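This protein record is not my work; I was only asked to verify it. Take the sequence as given and treat only the tokens as open to question. I have pasted the whole thing underneath without changing anything:
***
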Amino acid sequence: MQTGIVILLLLALAAANLPFATARVACVFKVARKHFGWQALELVVLYMLVGLLARLLEAQTMPVHAQNWQFYVTTFALFVVAAFPGFVYRYFWRKPGQ
């Protein structure tokens, strides 16, 4: 049980940083310059996918507890904080044009 939680957290950390790691949209479509809007959209989509995976894993072990909007706002804020290393790498450490 604990191993699954650790794996899910590591997956969430990787997913949060993925939009900033590549110049492709959704790691598939090549664009001339990937704007922040694409990265923000990818961040939201990846948050939803990780949340769906977490919900499916929870449903396998116990009944799923219903959540209110406060839960989703808080977990999204944590997901954005987890994306900070990728954001710093993309906008502060890399030279322009790379």
